[in-house]
Design a protein that fits this description.
Blueprint: H1 3-10, E1 14-18, E2 37-38, E3 54-57, E4 69-73, E5 85-88, H2 99-102, E6 119-122, E7 129-135, E8 138-141, E9 154-155, H3 161-167, E10 170-171, H4 173-177, E11 184-185, H5 189-198, H6 202-209, E12 234-235, E13 240-241, E14 246-254, E15 259-266, E16 273-279, E17 289-290
Parallel strand pairs: 3-5
Antiparallel strand pairs: 1-4, 2-3, 6-7, 7-8, 9-10, 11-17, 12-13, 14-15, 15-16
């Protein structure tokens, strides 16, 4: 049995988070001589034995100072034989995710709540139509923005056009600020606070706002208000991460010259979280709020 296999057979179930500023808040390693972790792609399979391949990254979690990376290690996923584990050696965090599993069939899912009466907004810039929804005193787009500006920086997850169709585009902060169509705007933290309070508070808002869809790795969303949040992942300037597991949305509130506030939802959590130290160069989703 090689060292990598031994490390995984003794590793406890762990969720590690590298924040936008590169701070590791939770991490567990089998021994100090190895920084091998199981990538989030393994969360999409129930066990190594039933998977054709599970990719490992031998990189340090702190390799990138501008990325959110959720790394999920399931104790059940390492119970299979070592022959089905493939080691990937890299000097930086590998762009390994469940995107190839989830995004490939994303177009077959309808993420909207059939019991909600949605409106429609037609973007005159490119002809795209977006569902809209009234939640309390606010009118939100019920989809992530998918407009491609003529300037600035935006991406489709994994540079795959079908991911833009499903999840919307990912924007850096300066581009997101001006990407919404006329009559709509990128909401600030106060607007998000209003939304979360109306649906029962930030501690449970994630459950209420997530689409009731298997596009989420673990589907705990009720989409009770028709917000239909989807896990579009992120781009850190180098690689794409966590489609299916995680969604993050820019707000119009800044935290300094190069950082800004955002909201994020994680697949297994009921809450909506606020982060105030994300680099503006990151690529996150954008939701537009009616003026």
């Amino acid at each position: 049995m090689n060292k990598i296999t031994q490390a995984f057979l003794t590793m406890a179930a762990t969720v590690a988070l590298v924040s936008c500023a590169g701070k590791s808040t939770t991490a567990t390693q089998a021994d100090s001589s190895s920084d091998v972790v199981l990538s989030s792609s393994s969360a999409a399979t129930s066990s190594v034995a039933s998977s054709s391949s599970t990719e490992l990254s031998s990189s340090s979690l702190g390799a990138s100072s501008s990325s959110f990376v959720y790394v999920v290690v399931s104790s059940s996923s390492v119970a299979g034989s070592s022959s089905s584990v493939t080691a990937v050696s890299s000097s930086s965090v590998a762009a390994v995710s469940s995107s190839s599993v989830i995004a490939s069939s994303a177009s077959s899912f309808n993420p909207f709540n059939p019991n909600i009466s949605y409106g429609v907004m037609n973007d005159p810039r490119d002809g795209q139509a977006y569902k809209t929804v009234v939640i309390g005193s606010q009118t939100w787009m019920a989809q992530n923005l998918n407009y491609k500006p003529t300037s600035g920086n935006s991406w489709c997850y994994s540079n795959t056009a079908s991911n833009c169709t499903t999840y919307g585009r990912l924007y850096d902060y300066p581009t997101a600020l001006t990407a919404c169509p006329t009559g709509w705007h990128l909401p600030n933290t106060t607007a998000w606070n209003t939304l979360e309070a109306y649906v029962g508070g930030a501690a449970t808002a994630g459950t209420a706002l997530k689409a009731n869809s298997t596009l989420w790795s673990t589907n705990i969303g009720t989409d009770a208000y028709g917000f239909s949040a989807l896990p579009g992942g992120l781009y850190n300037g180098t690689a794409f991460y966590n489609v299916g597991d995680y969604g993050e949305w820019w707000t119009a509130t800044t935290g300094g010259n190069s950082i800004a506030y955002n909201r994020y939802m994680f697949y297994s959590s009921a809450d909506v979280n606020l982060t105030n130290d994300c680099f503006m160069s990151n690529g996150f989703s954008a939701r537009c709020l009616k003026d």
